[in-house]
Specification:
- The complex is a heterodimer of chains A (163) and B (187).
- Chain A has a single domain (27-160), classed as lambda repressor-like DNA-binding domains (434 Repressor (Amino-terminal Domain)).
- Chain A is 53% helix and 0% strand.
- Chain A contains 8 helices and no strands.
- Chain B has 5 helices and 10 strands.
- In chain B, β3 and β4 form a beta hairpin.
- The chains are: A mainly alpha (163), B alpha+beta (187).
- Chains A and B meet through α1, α2, α3 and α7 of A and α1, β5, α3, β7 and α4 of B.
């Protein structure tokens, strides 16, 4: 645990290090940060692409769409198709639940202390976008199954590693 | 104030300067801290860094002026830390303090070391310069309480409206901190 490392360092005689944040309030939640500072939520995609030094062509190819389509999605105010979100999470190896929140597909739960928590699945209960088509509802079911499988798999791996 | 910070990635020391911010700090915050925070928070579910609304805090300090003053820690033009000072009674009050998200010490992954300590040192010196003998107050975020304990600050028993514990630095704690940090100061 990080705290014990700092404790050890202090008594090793080196200068104390650690989180230093102090203020009148807690910080902003990730969802609020996106709403407040990004022109549109989909700008997250451009940020991810730039951060991971990926070209528009590379990312479009991984998503199975054209560069033009990707550019349109990145600059659009429409929600990123939710079927695309798990693929994005896989490509960039980022937290799927938070990505769903930041892209507007799920709602963030109220901050509970410092711990980030998200609304419980199923996501459909939290979905606030336009009415879904029958095909999209089926996709949503698949998406939930995928998320649950991923979480289960991750927990399994952590268990094997003795975490 | 200038001091030697330490880059854990490049494994060498750099000169960091703490100076009053101007409006360019707002742009630097939005263009560097915000995207970096979002990327880190997406990549690591255990990244509990709290991003303050620094654009608002900085704007307020320019509009309200004294006693609110904001300072930035700059390493080669990069904004590595931010500090907002005010006054509460006889004490200097740290209204807000934060290191940049890329410096946040999380599983020892922070890039620059000593940025936070440099900002604390600057505050203690400001407290002494304004005849407050190094005394200062702040409300620590839960994750940061350990740091303030370790540098000799003590909880006053008070809590603010957000439930953040108030910590105080007394004159002796301030002297001890300065003594430890002085080896990094550049005259």
């Amino acid at each position: 645990m990080a705290g014990s490392k700092f404790f050890k360092k202090f008594f090793d005689g080196s200068f104390p290090e650690g989180p230093i944040e102090a203020g009148q309030t807690l910080g902003l939640s990730p969802g609020v940060v996106v709403e407040k500072y990004l022109k549109n939520r989909n700008e997250i995609l451009s940020l991810l692409r730039i951060y991971f030094k990926m070209s528009l062509a590379d990312m479009a190819s991984k998503l199975g769409i054209s560069e033009k389509e990707l550019k349109e999605i990145e600059t659009s105010h429409e929600l990123v198709p939710f079927q695309m979100v798990p693929t994005l999470a896989d490509i960039f190896d980022v937290d799927l639940r938070l990505l769903l929140v930041l892209l507007g597909h799920a709602k963030e739960r109220e901050e509970n202390g410092l711990k980030r928590e998200f609304a419980d699945l199923p996501i459909a209960a939290q979905y606030s976008g336009p009415e879904l088509s029958e095909q999209e509802k089926v996709d949503l079911e698949n998406l939930i199954k995928m998320i649950l499988e991923k979480i289960k798999k991750k927990k399994g791996n952590e268990g094997e590693m003795g975490v | 104030m200038k001091f030697l910070s330490y880059d854990t990635k490049e494994k060498k020391e750099f000169l960091t300067e703490i100076r009053a911010t101007d409006v360019s700090a707002i742009k630097a915050y939005i263009q560097t801290w915000v995207p970096d925070y979002l990327m880190r928070v997406l990549r690591d579910t255990d990244f509990y860094y709290q991003l303050f609304e620094w654009d608002r805090i900085l704007k307020l300090s320019y509009v309200v002026g004294f006693p609110w003053r904001c300072y930035g820690a700059y390493t080669n033009y990069r904004l590595d830390g931010l500090l907002c000072l005010g006054v509460e009674g006889e004490n200097l009050k740290i209204e807000y303090i934060a290191t940049a998200p890329w410096n946040y010490t999380h599983e020892d992954a922070g890039k620059m070391r000593r940025i936070g300590s440099g900002l604390i040192c600057f505050t203690i010196k400001s407290s002494i310069d304004t005849k407050r003998q190094g005394r200062l107050l702040l409300n620590a975020l839960p994750d940061a309480e350990g740091f303030y304990d370790r540098i000799g600050m003590r909880p006053t028993g008070n809590m603010n409206d957000s439930g953040l514990k108030e910590y105080e630095m007394q004159t002796d704690g301030a002297s001890s901190f300065l003594k430890k940090f002085e080896k990094y100061l550049v005259v």
